[in-house]
Amino acid sequence: MTALIQARGLTILRPGGSETVLQGVDFQIRPREIVTVVGPNGSGKSSLVRALLGHMPLAAGQVERRPGLRIGYVPQRVQVDTTIPMTVRRFLSLPRRVSDRDAARALARTGVEGVEARQLTQLSGGQFQRVLLARALLHDPQLLVLDEPTQGLDQPGIVAFYKLIEEVRHQTGAAILMVSHDLLVVMRASDRVICLNGHVCCEGTPQHVSSAPEYRALFGAEAEGTLALYRHHHDHDHDHSHDHHHHAGAH
Question: Residue 42 and residue 61: Cα distance in Å, rounded?
Fold first, then answer.
């Protein structure tokens, strides 16, 4: 099995079982690949991720994971209880303790070195996302799963975060599965895009998906805009895609 995770014919029902959330979804992700799932609200994106992680019952189909697969997960929204003081360092040791050295290394890797003693509540949105990512990287995952990782970040924060994700793949060799609604950055940062709306509407390279009629029908004007921008950036970026890697952590 070359895939890290493979799913066939996934069907998921809403709690109560009367309505289908996802139907007949086939999915796979291979080592080092960046795959992004896009789709309108309620299209089943988070359900697909939870099913792949084994957190959700299947009405039909099956999920195969490579034996011993190590997965790092950055959930959609982590509610931090503001009444309980919690430092970044303590947070990184939940639920499994990690050494100071490993904690420091993970934070440095995600561009927030030296924040160990800070309270979680004192972090900006972008810093908190980077701490979550550091925590997901602690146990050397072969697959990193991020559910809407840039929610609440501004445009520069979003672009910087996706650059960071590309660096992480470059440094660790992990495959990355993301759920996102940032169409433009998705189109720039993914190897493969899967467009969901209760089923797989279309999938393929960003170029293929961005010109697919199903994708345009779902995203309308936003799709047209990303396609034009994607083509523009793509023409410029082609030869220098690795020049930016060294500076992304500095912002």
Answer: 21
